[in-house]
Amino acid sequence: MILTGPQIIDSTTSGRIRISPFEVAQVNPNSYNVRLGSTLRTYQTDVIDAYRPNPTQSITLDSDGYVLHPDELYLGHTVEEVGSDHYVPLLFGRSSVGRLGLFVEITAPIGDIGFHGQWTLMLSPVRPLRVYPGMKIGQIMFFEAYGDIELYSGKYQRAAGPQESRYWHDVVGTM
């Protein structure tokens, strides 16, 4: 079952969901709006290697915004730290942002129970698009979990800012 807006408020008040900063005005009928943070990260090589660390460049957004370009992957992050030890969070792009031609989080919307931190956003525009820090970029929904819960304790726990892929961590011992 998906949590409704009033249940998101109640669960945040009771501590079953943690959102910081939390603003009631960002609660929707069945989701919570999250905003784009002030840092983007891009990969610096033409070929990204899944089995090795890849160099990245950091971009700081200011009040003038920043133009995203097609054929480039931008890693952004949410302003909010969001997590729950009780519910499964899913993050999707807002439809109004999608209508501007920006794909947000299209391959990894599911969060793990027990993850707490800023969410990394995979941003991919279909045409040049100016984005701004603090703009509403996505929405997180919360679903009830059934069965035993094992809390997340992985490599992205307590993320702050955009996190580049650490996939290579998973394969180092298998090569």
From TrEMBL:
Does Ubl conjugation appear among the keywords? no
Q: Does the keyword Hydrolase apply?
A: yes
User: Which keywords belong to this entry?
Assistant: Hydrolase, Nucleotide metabolism
Source organism's superkingdom?
Bacteria
Q: GO terms for biological process? A: dUTP biosynthetic process; nucleobase-containing small molecule interconversion
Alphabetically, the GO molecular function entries are: dCTP deaminase activity
Q: Which NCBIfam families does this one have? A: dCTP_deam
Its recorded name reads dCTP deaminase
Instruction: Give the species.
Output: Micromonospora phaseoli
Q: Taxonomic lineage per UniProt?
A: Bacteria, Bacillati, Actinomycetota, Actinomycetes, Micromonosporales
